Amino acid sequence: MFRENDIHSQNLVSLHARRRVLQSCALGFGGLALGAMGQEVDTRTNPLAPKKPHFAPRAKRIVFLFMKGGPSHVDTFDPKPALTRDDGKPPPFELPRVVFAQQGNLLKSPWKFTQRGESGLPVSELFPKVAEHIDKLCVLRSLHGSNPAHGGALLKIHTGSDQFVRPSMGAWVTYGLGTENQDLPAFVTICPTLAHGGVNNWGAAFLPTYCQGTPIGNASQSAAKSTVQHIASPKVDLRNQREQMDLLAKFNDDFAKQHREESVLAGQMGAFELAYRMQTSIPEVQELSSETEGTLRLYGIDDPITENFGRQCLMARRFLERGVRFVQVTHSDSEVQWDQHSDLYVGHTKNAAEVDKPIAGFLTDLDQRGLLKDTLVVWGGEFGRTPTSQGNGRDHNPHGFCMWMAGGGVRGGYAYGATDEYGYYAVENKMHINDLHATILHLLGLDHERLTYPYGGRDFRLTDVAGKVAKDILA
């Protein structure tokens, strides 16, 4: 992160010759674009400073609990009695023109659904702990997308586009709102998958680089061993780093006085200063020794089955309560994920057991700390699964699936939209991925049509040229 001791001043002085290049860098344009949004904060000198939303927000922060691979809606939160009735029969409807793989007859869910809470919303026995919070959940039953392949679908849910490299949802939120803690990144992704788009799923693309997500490990590492790469220098201690930073700041200040480059240089120094501060702030968030035994049990960290995802969720809470704006937590592994083309019962049973208690504990903890009311929790995958069979599994289904939200100003104990009687297509209050993104931004106080960025001759936005807010889900 920093150079070794005994920096030669002539090397730093040589930086002066390259200062004019900064005049056309992305950070400079980013500051101008943000200024065009009408924000009152001078984001050119401190681009991560908190910014006023377009209107009063219902949520101040967001956490996305991402279930990679595509959990089956008809086996979790969208029961289909007709599917049980007609189990084994050929589907009485036309399949999509393009399917991911060959499909067989109808396949009933191997799990029972029970009405839970005062709302009476049905939940599969896969999620007994989450079911205890059903009156907090707004179940979105009519999601649909455009891509039946993991790669395109992951990019779509994260960036709004399945064909081009576009800024991620977290990057757009960072761009629009900044962060409330200048010692931590605005956007953190915990144990993200490196497959199917990889860094593009948390990248900034053409947005300013400060909008980029900061990964904490990746899906191939245990949460206990995951941290920001190169978070500390093994050769240069903090005192010497501070001296280097101060010297660089002096050179920048001298140059700025001569060439009026205060905003660009301040932005660059802001990035360096954040990296410097993260050396102590990030490890502190990840250190769980200050948590009580009761809290660790609540998240399932005392159980080897739930320990890994529970640790991720607890870290997410610690980031959120310290002012990080957008946190993503990914459940994924290299063997099973949620992608059950075969062995549906074995795979979904394993996956649900790993996340059910941690998610329920996370919701309980947020609620007890008073954070849930202004934290938007989003749960789901890149698509759902077909009600038709592939042996004893299910194929990818982007045409109709479900996600849920909690907290952050959404209606609890409420089901929005519907798929058809078998669960293949969204048919009522259809909610495209663009609509999902528009609704998320709305809950955060951002108008998705006004949150734009000029690039390549046009204004871009997360929802592209579509998207409508699902106002019926607002509390």
Describe, in short, the structure shown.
The chain is α/β, with parallel strands linked by helices. The protein is built from twelve helices and 17 strands. Helix 10 (307-321) packs parallel to helix 11.
Descriptive report:
A hairpin with a 2-residue loop joins β16 (453-455) and β17 (458-460). The protein is globular. The chain has one domain: Alkaline Phosphatase, subunit A. Strands 1, 4, 5, 6, 7, 8, 11, 12 and 15 form a nine-stranded mixed beta sheet that branches. It has twelve helices and 17 strands. The two termini are 45 Å apart. The chain is α/β, with parallel strands linked by helices and 475 residues long. It has helices at residues 9-13, 26-36, 81-85, 128-131, 150-159, 169-177, 238-259, 262-286, 293-298, 307-321, 344-368, 433-443; strands at residues 61-67, 113-116, 121-124, 137-144, 187-190, 214-216, 326-331, 375-380, 384-385, 396-397, 401-407, 414-416, 418-419, 426-428, 431-432, 453-455, 458-460.
| CATH fold category name | Alkaline Phosphatase, subunit A
- Domain module tally: 1
| Residue fraction in strands | 5-15%
- Mind describing the biggest β-sheet? 9 strands, mixed
SSE layout and pairing:
Blueprint: H1 9-13, H2 26-36, E1 61-67, H3 81-85, E2 113-116, E3 121-124, H4 128-131, E4 137-144, H5 150-159, H6 169-177, E5 187-190, E6 214-216, H7 238-259, H8 262-286, H9 293-298, H10 307-321, E7 326-331, H11 344-368, E8 375-380, E9 384-385, E10 396-397, E11 401-407, E12 414-416, E13 418-419, E14 426-428, E15 431-432, H12 433-443, E16 453-455, E17 458-460
Helix pairs in contact: 7-8, 10-11
